[in-house]
Amino acid sequence: MITWGATVTGVTPLPDGRHRVSLADGAHHDADLVIACDGIRSHARSLVTGEQPTYSGITFIHGDLRDPGPGSFVARNTGEGILHALGDNKAILAQRAADRSVRVYFALRTPEDPARTLGDRFADTAAVRAHLRETFAGWSPDLLSALDEIDTDFAYWPLYGLPAHQHWQPHTGITLLGDAAHVMPPFGGQGVNMALLDAVELVHTLFSPQCTTIDEAIVVFEQAMLDRMAGAILDADAGGEMLLSPAGTAPLLDHFAAAAAAEAGQ
Question: Which of 14, 80, 163, 192 is the most exposed place for a label (fewest CB within 10 A)?
Fold first, then answer.
């Protein structure tokens, strides 16, 4: 059964080894096994690990071209995939969606906003457009024309991540999946894929004849998941360093050249 709109406010261990999941409406559920997939601010993480997400130094400001016209430079050059325009610690990135819209990300290195108040200002689309024109002054007018084509509000997305190699303390009756377990910047394009794989592998492990108890299955699952995620997180972090670099396009071009040379040598 799925209960929509049930906001979790806390997860608390009970004396009998179960956990109580408390909801905003005052209700609660007591469970033998809690699978927490409640994202970057998971209420369950502290029961499993002391690791907390840290700011990557990169923030995205993004909006959508819901119905780009045939003359749209960004839509045309995004094609059926993605567009990367790179500069000095800045980037304009675009991605085609299944509904034919194009999401445009203005990415930059900027200090953290610990109070997370900057996002409240993004309903003033005129101010956001002016700010981005100033921030990306000197960039191609063709690229910046996307600012006039975006027909949605802008969203503010500071990027956070967890270490590639995490320490999880012993625990029973609870585990983490997806961003709750291993949030990372999106530069590897693996976040949702890894979350789905987490779910599949957890189910397989829980029903594996090699695991005689739920807690034994959780230990096996978590070790395999954390080992798998180490490489994915390192790749995502490296992708951010490559796309937002003081050297502009050079790191990405060097990466492609190395990949082409390696393929040619096979």
Answer: 80
